[in-house]
Amino acid sequence: MRDYIIRRILVVIPLLFAISLLSFFIMQLSPGSYLDDLRMNPDISEELIRKMEADFGLDQNIFIQYFSWLKEILQGNLGESFTYRIPVAQIIGSRLFNTLLLSAAAMLISWGIAIPIGIYSAVHRYSFLDNIFSVFSFIGLSIPNFFFALLLLFSIVRFDIPLPINGMTSIMYDYMSPMEKVIDILKHLLVPAVVLGTAGTASLMRQMRGQMLDVINKDYIRTARAKGLKEKKVIYKHAFRNAINPMITIFGFQLSSLFSGAALTEIVTGWPGLGRMMLTAVRSKDLYLAMAGMMMGSLMLIIGNLAADILLALNDSRIKYQ
Amino acid sequence: MQHKLKLDDQIKVNSTKTLWQKNLARLLKNKFALIAAVIIFLLYFLAIFAPFFAPYSSTKNFKNKFFHPPTKIHFTDENGLTSPYIYGTEVKEGWAEYEINKEKKYPIKFFQQGDSYQFLGVFESNIHLFGVEADQPIFILGSDNYGRDLFTRILYGGRVSLFIGFIAIFITTFIGLIMGGISGYYGGFIDSVIMRAVEVIMSIPSFYLLLALAAVLPLDLSSAFRFFLIVSILAFQGWAGMARVIRGMVLSVKSEDYIAAAKALGADDKRIILKHILPSTATYVIIRATVAIPGYIIMESGLSFIGLGIQEPSASWGNMLSAAQNITKISDFPWLLLPGLFIFITVLSYNILGDGLRDALDPKS
After folding, report:
1. Taking every annotated instance into account, which residue ranges of this chain make up the domain ABC transmembrane type-1 (chain A) (predicted)?
2. Chain B residue with Cα closest to A265
C-alpha cells in the first residue's frame, strides 16, 4: 500500500510538468500581451514599457520564458502578477482558501441533505416522496449553476430578503467584531454554497439511493430481519453502514469536480475564489497569475483523485495495489 | 400441420425484430423519455426553422423599445372572442417604462411578410409565421437592451446552443473512438503516449482549460468560424474521457474468441477494429453521447455568459443571459432570464432521455 501511494505521488511530478508545458503554451498562443493595453496609454512612455517588458521577461523567446518560469517555480517563486504588482503567492493563497471554504460549505450542504434523503428514498422506494425527490434530483442535475445563482439573486432582490448579493464581505467588514465578521462571511457564503451544494445533492442522492437499494436486497439484511431486529436497527446498523462505504470514494471525486463547478458560481456571485481569479487573469493576460491558478487547480484535482483512490483502497480490502 | 405453420410464423415474427428494434420498443415504453424526446425534437425544429417562426431577423432592433416587457396578446374585445390582437405601446417619461395605448388595435397576422431571410442558404423568403404591422413591434417574450425581440433571439440562439452540443459530441466521439481504439488495440508505446496525453488533459480542471483556450480566440472572427473553434475547444477538452473508457472496453473485447477467429481468417487490423471491436462499444457510446450533450450545452452557455464564447451580435442562450448579469436589470426586467429557462428545459430533456436510453439499452442496470 505504501509503495503504491509513493508511486502514485511520483507520477504526479511528470504530470504537473506536462500540464505546465501545455498551459504555458496555450496561454502564449493568445494574441497580444498584458502590455498592449499600456501601450495604448499615451501617459506611459516607451522606455517604461520596454523596462517592464524586460522585468516580466516578456521580451524573450517563449522557450526561454517557459524555462525561466519553471526555474523560478521550482525554487518556490510563483512570479509577480502584472496587474496587482505583488507576488502571485500572496494572491493565490487567499483565493485558494476562499474556494476551499466555498467547496467545504457546499459539500456540507450536499452530504447533509443527500444522505438522509437517499436512505429514505431507498427504504420507501417508489413512494410518493421518493418520486418527488427523484423529480427534484433531475431538476437539480439539469439546472446550470450560473442560472440557478441568477435565479436566487433575482429572488433575493425581488422579495427583499436581507442577504448580500455580491462578494465575500460587506463594506463595514473592517469595523466589525470577530463574531460579526464570521456571521458576515457566512451570510455572503450562503448563496454560492447553496448553488454548489444543490448541484452536488442531486447526483449524490441518486447514488446513495442506489447503494442503499443494493444493500437492502442482500442476504444479511434478510438474516437481520429474520432474527427479529427492529427495522430501524436493520436499516441504520446493517444496511446504512455497508451502503455508505462506497460513497466515501465519491467524496474524493467530488473534491475534484467542485473546483470546475465552483468557477462560474464564483463569477456570478462575486465570490473571490480561484475560478474568478482565473477569469480576470486570463482576460487581462496576467500570465504568471493565470499559470499559478492553472497549476493550483490541477494540483487540487490530482490530490482529489489520489485521495479517492487511496480511500477506495483503505476501504475495500478486496482491492490489492501493487 | 396447421399448428406447426403457426408456430413457424411466430418464430419468423419474433426473429425479424433486430436488437435495435427491441431497444427502440423498450425506449418507447418509457413515457418520460418519450416526452423528453418530443420536446428536444420540437426545440431543434424551432431552431432550424428559426427565420420562419421568429417574427423578425435576429439583429433587428427597435429604437425606443429597449427592455420592453412581453406584449400582452388579447383574444377578446367588447364583442367577445376575436382574432388575437395587441395594443400599441409608447415610451413613458423615464427609463424603459411603457404605456399601453388602447386607442389602436394591431391584429396579429399569420404568414406575415417581414424581414427577408435566406433559408438553409438556398431559398429566399420573407414570410414569417406571425407578425403585426411594421411600426408596432410584437415582443411575445419581451425585448433586450438594444430593443431586439427576445423570442426571435432565443430561436436564433437555439441554433448555436443546441447544435454546439450536438456537433461537439460528434467530434469528441469520433476522436475518442479512434484514439481509444488504437490505444487499446495496439498497446505498447503508442498506448502509453495516448494515455499520458489523456491524463494531462483530465488533470486540468475542465473549466480552467476552457477558459485559457477560449481566451486564445481573437475577438474579430466571423461568427461561423468562432462557432467552429468553440466546438473544437469543447472537443479538445472532451475526447480524453471518452478515449479512456473506449480503451478499457477494447482491451476486454480484444481477448474474445471472435477476434481471434477474425484474425485467423486473415482480417487486417483496420477491419478488426472497425467491424468487430468498435461495434461492441456502440451501446456505451450512444448512452455516453446523450448524457454528455447537456454538459456541452452548459459549458458553451457558461463560456458565452462570461463573454468568451459566442459574441454579439450573434445570439446564444449563454450570451443572452449575460445581459441579466447585472442584478438591477434582472429585478426590473425578469424576462431577461428566459434564455436560461430554455437551457434548463433542454438539459432536463436530454437528461431524462439519457436516463431512458440507459434503461432501454442496458437492461442489466
Report:
1. 96-312
2. B302
Are B207 and A275 in contact by the 8 Å Cβ rule? The answer is yes
Please provide the average confidence, as pLDDT, over all residues in chain B: 82
Tell me the residue length of chain B: 365
3-class DSSP state of B98: strand
Residues of A in contact with B294 (CB under 8 A): 142
In a domain, A10, yes or no: no
The tally of domains found in chain A comes to 1
Q: Do A260 and B205 touch (CB under 8 A)?
A: yes
For the domain that residue A120 is a member of, what is the CATH number? 1.10.3720.10
CB contact under 8 A, B337 and A143: no
Q: Is A161 on the interface with B (CB under 8 A)?
A: no
Query: What is the spatial distance between Cα B194 and Cα A112, in angstroms, rounded to a whole number?
Result: 40
In A, residues 220-279, which contact B (CB 8 Å cutoff)?
Answer: 256, 259-261, 263-264, 267-268, 275, 278-279
Query: Which alpha helices (H) appear in chain A, and where do they start and end?
Result: 2-29, 35-40, 46-56, 62-74, 88-123, 128-142, 145-158, 178-216, 219-226, 231-233, 240-269, 274-283, 287-315
Q: Please check whether residue A61 lies inside any domain of the structure.
A: no
Q: Do B212 and A279 make contact, defined as CB atoms within 8 angstroms?
A: no
Is A174 contained in some domain?
yes
Domain assignment present for residue A65? The answer is no
CA atoms within 13 A on the CB side of B169: 19
Q: Which tens digit of pLDDT belongs to each residue from A148-204?
A: 999 998 888 888 888 887 878 777 777 888 888 888 888 889 999 999 988 888 888
Flag whether pLDDT at A68 surpasses 90.
no
**pLDDT tens across A78-128, in order?**
888 877 888 888 888 888 899 889 988 998 999 999 999 999 998 888 889
> What is the number of other CB atoms lying within 10 angstroms of the CB of residue B234?
29
| pLDDT value for B1 | 45
Domains of chain B: 71-138 (no CATH), 152-361 (1.10.3720.10)
